[in-house]
Amino acid sequence: MKRNRLLAIMTGTCALAALAATAAAETSVVQWDQFSSSGATSSGPAMEALIKVCEGELKDVKINRTVAPSIGIRDAYRLAVSADKTPDLAYTWPAASVLAGYARTNKIAPLDAYYDKYKWENVTPFYRGRNSYQGKIYAVPMEQDLMGVYYNRDLFKKLGLEVPTTYAGFKDVVEKLKAASVVPIAFGNKDRWPATNTMSLLMGLSTGRANEEKVFFGDEAWTNPGFKLAAETFQQWGKDGYFPRGFNGIGVDEANALFLGGKAAMNVGGSWFLQDMARNAKFDIGVFMLPPIGDGVAPGTMWGEGSQWQISASASDAVKDAAAAYVNCLTSPANRQTWVEKGYTVPIGTTAEDLAKWNTLPLVKEFFGQGLATADSNFYDLHTTLPESVTQVLYPELQKLVGGDATPDAFLATMQDAWKVAIDKGERWAP
Amino acid sequence: MQNGRTAFLFVAPALVLYAVFVGLPILQVFAYSFFTWDSGTIRGFGGLENYTRLVADGVFWTALSHNAIWVVLTLAFPLMAGLITASILAERSPRTVRLLSVLYFLPRTIPMVVVGIIWLWIYSPIFGLLNWFLDSVGLGNLGAAWLAEPNTALLSLNIAGAWTFFGFCNIIYLAAIQSIDPSLYEAASLDGATWWQKFRFVTTPLLRSTTLFLGLYAAIEAMRFFDLVYVTTSGGPGYSTEVLTTHIYKTFFLVGDFGYAAALSVVLLAIVLSISGISYRMLRKP
Amino acid sequence: MTKRLRLFQYAVLGFFALYALIPVYLVLLASVRSEADLFSGPLSLPWPIDLSTYKRVWFESGFQGYFINSLIISCSATFLVMLTAPLAGFAFAKLNFRYKELVFGLFLAGLVLPAPSVIVALYGNLNRLDLLDSHLGVILPQAALLLPFSIFMMRTVMEDVPSELIEAATVDGASIFKTYWLIVLPIVRPGLMSLALISFLFSWQEYLLPLVVIQDETLKPLTVGAAALQGRYGVDYAGIAAAGVIAFAPVVLLFLVMQRSFVRGLTAGAVK
User: Which of C23, C96, C222 has the CB atom closest to B3's CB atom?
Assistant: First the structure.
């Protein structure tokens, strides 16, 4: 009798211990991201769905998710780091510059071990560089973004215009649009980042990726002929009426509304606008890649990544491992389809063939089909490549350049000065 | 009568609240400015490095000049507007006075963020109401990108800011005018003074301390205002609407250089406190 | 007064009335019209008034919640100010103690503080106090920031209370606190009312503080919610207008109803 009772107690204790152990073995990961759940094409629901999928697969990982406050995740992350409240895992932007800052101050953890473990081949060297600092890699980018020229097919047809295959042809199209009193390109730079994206596109098409790398990772100065061509082109667009009047005071939303309302024929924008463009256009909408501008430059487009996953350096090893495993699940090929179909984003590693098979908008397939075809010559996104202090100079200087208040030479000289200061302070990342 | 301990008890609750949530952050910012920071983390002791850097910072001087221009514009327009409307209203029936004073003050009750949104819309180049209005009265060629051109941006913003301020000036001046002895006006009338002369030689001098008070208030607000610019132009185009507070904000959040942002803040505080100190002393003169 | 002068004066008054009113009217107009005829069509209010945008913004875009949050935060901050400022104001007005003017000066210094300068340090402190992402994390700093103006106003108002009354009471044996509570406060009740209204107004308008401190969507006040509507891709002018009206209508109505009290509070201290 007594022995049975003892046995029962022992079994009970063991069971409890096992339960406690299992409960203790569940690691909680605090995640911050900016996927909102409001709006028809928000990615929030997909994020929630995938959290459940991955928690199910990983069994002992629990994700504690917070959607970033209105101040924006970039600023919120900055505050959190300064208050020693860095979230375990965050999906934030931009890469390179700001990432380098956090790496330099040991706020985020190097992820080389995890890259070895999980392979993550979809993150090609082109992306890896941007997310590294001094030889170590610190983030996992997830989405890919391209730039292109959205256009109003109906309007083009009405005016007898063809999609241009050369830059001269493009200028021709613009002149014909101006003659017909249509705003050629919808553009609003009040928020200052649109010009940076447009500049990224023009820069790559004026000078090519190899030359960009000579400046961004080498010793070449901004005041080189290729960059000058880009600056001149952008300024000429502003001066020659390519944009709506007063574009430096027009917001992104208004510029898009101008295009979507049929009052502007084209919209130089990124794939991040795809859902809004496709769903709100009252006309047949298409996209083409802007032809190269400089002599001998290969066709290509800007290729960026939106945001990236980064892990806090102060998290425990268990949490770091859990976070990495979770990210591995999120970015796995199996889940890419969910991201595309339900999250309205295109993960890195998705090919045009994949997209063709999946249930997504034709415009998405068209955009990525064209943009990914030039993968070898696609070039850099200034937002994620420049140190933050340089971006903050670029913003107002671009407004001046395109507004006609600064010459291309003056613009490049100012940028070179800011660039040099940043390099001397060790802010630049190098792949 | 010395009531040391009782007085302390009376003041203590406010003092504690104030010290924890206002006093402490000020001291912290002051301390931050003496260190060098990188991406929101302290790197090392910098001494006066951040302050010397300030002197050579072109953006700082540009921003400061914009704050100064803002002060002048505010003194010229809304302050004068309040004085004139108050002088006119002082002779009207109480009902008119009340109606119009309330009307003029209405914009002040609107949160600055919403003020920014409203005026963004008014000034918008494509869909904006100002250009639409100019078009409809045949002055379409005067239309411009008000917030987008460097020459007009700051002025346009100031008109939005003045919109919220002139009603306040009106109310303050009205109260002051109503306390002026009417016999002074009667005497002036007997001497054959016109309305305008009465305004210049009776009203205005007697309102000296009120004007100083409002001027001081305007100057302080002109140095510390933030919401309006942040929501509309963020300091652009270029740097044409950059003010000290937006420069500070960007340096804190976007660049992450807490030390330099702190130094900027300390300098801003010093400027404002000196203006206040000087004006306070002027106000106390009889 | 010549007729021409009178006409000129009315023109001036009328001009400023239009200046004050037109932007407000335009926002009201935008909030009750459909997107299509926002910029075409007449400038008169359509009849009957279409409140569907308000319904949408209130129920679907979360503004019902934002309104309640603003109410909670502003009422609480005002309450806190009323608890602390009159006490301190009385001490500065009627009591004597060492360093009185110095402490008063310290309070006044807070009047000139720009929010962006201290927000980072404040964030760190709030984090350590575990007050982030909570209403209290906004209420406490807000009340503290309102103190300089409030104490200045309370001091001015209480200085007007005849000292003889206070002396008479204390001679009769009442403690200073009792005198304050039973004699002084009732006399300055109008001033207290004004202070409450002005504190409520300023608190309602606060933007940067709640923007930074509050992360949880369900805790945000109206200012943050209204501004957030702006940054999305795709423009919703009617919605933004309606959100703006919801954000300012309560305090405008409050002001209209209690104007005299507001005005008295604002002029206290200015006209001395």
Answer: C96
